[in-house]
Amino acid sequence: MRKLRLVLMMSLVLIFLSACSLQPPEWAKPSSGSGEGDVKVGLSVSTLNNPFFVSMKEGVEQEAEAQGMEVVVVDAQNDAAKQVNDVEDLIQQGVDVLLINPTDSAAISTAVQSANSLGIPVVTLDRSAEKGEVATLVSSDNEKGGEIAGEYIVEQVGEGAKVAELEGVPGASATRERGAGFHNIADEQLDVVAKQTANFDRTEGLTTMENMLQGNPDIEAVFAHNDEMALGAYQAIQSSGRDILVVGFDGNDDAMSSIRDGNLSATVAQQPIEIGKLAVQAGDDVLQGNEVEDTIPVPLKLVTEENVEE
């Protein structure tokens, strides 16, 4: 009889322990609110070696501080594999919401899916993720921005002008969308004689532009998918002694200064600080059970020497 009681007690203990083991760990449970100290935000940025993304990070931090949230920031350094590892690490740290600015829209999908499996909401900034469930994308209309750049170039140098295109990181949605928008105009009204990636990097923009000029001495204008590449391209053009129109994309401080100085011709300006703030607000809305739009647009503006702010 004692043995039977002992067996029954052990069975009950095992059942109890098994039931406990089915509960998710505390860090995997979504937060129920956004009170001070309740929410930890994980921010993964493609690179902090770019003023645009530094401003975006500042926007996240400003809004999070205003709402009493903690922010943990990781820098992927434009390395897609590192970014996936970074996001997995943020998940292990118990973040309540993930804000991701993807280096590569396809590669980041596995990390997004990992967050999905644990019920951690994901908001993407500036660039989308190809797979996995994303609550919303906070971004400018990159395709429309490419069209704005193309239209401006046509206005300035005329139809049929020979132009070059400096493309961003292959695989990034911003690269595809800005290029698509530009070609909506350029394929009909311009002659794109050269296009090559410079990975959104200023130094690569300089060297790539040097090579383009050697092979295409009659280039009349350049569209770069971001300001960093545009600034690098301008350096190469200046060294060559040629007069070539250069249009960038982002509206970072260096580009604005260059436009004021009469160097860069124009940039399609985004609002990176606003993107960061809106992403935090969207993440908070999701945590509180509020519906958000699939995309949250942030307005663009063509900035030239005529309308650049002092």
Comma- or semicolon-separated keywords:
alpha/beta; disordered N terminus; six-stranded parallel beta sheet; 10 helices; six-stranded mixed beta sheet; 19% strand; 310 residues; elongated
| SS summary, helix count | 10
Beta strand count: 12
Give the N-to-C terminal Cα separation: 91 Å
Overall average residue pLDDT: 90
Radius of gyration: 24 Å
Strand content: 15-25%
Flag low-confidence runs: 1-36
Largest sheet: 6 strands, parallel
Helix % is 40-55%
Identify the strand order in the major beta sheet. Answer: 2-1-3-4-5-11
- Which outline best applies? elongated
Structural class of the secondary structure composition? alpha/beta
Report the order of strands and helices.
Answer: HEHEHEHEEHEHEHEHEHEHEE
Topology:
Blueprint: H1 2-21, E1 40-45, H2 51-66, E2 70-75, H3 80-92, E3 97-100, H4 109-117, E4 122-125, E5 136-139, H5 142-157, E6 162-167, H6 173-189, E7 191-197, H7 202-215, E8 221-224, H8 227-240, E9 245-250, H9 253-260, E10 266-269, H10 272-287, E11 295-297, E12 301-304
Provide an overview of this structure:
- By secondary structure, the protein is of the alpha/beta class.
- The chain has helices spanning 2-21, 51-66, 80-92, 109-117, 142-157, 173-189, 202-215, 227-240, 253-260, 272-287, and strands at 40-45, 70-75, 97-100, 122-125, 136-139, 162-167, 191-197, 221-224, 245-250, 266-269, 295-297, 301-304.
- It has a six-stranded parallel beta sheet, with helices on both faces. A six-stranded mixed beta sheet has the order 7-6-8-9-10-12, sandwiched between helices.
- α5 (142-157) runs parallel beside α6 and α7 (202-215) crosses α8 (227-240).
- The chain is elongated, with a radius of gyration of 24 Å.
- 47% of the residues are buried.
- Residues 1-36 have low confidence and may be disordered.
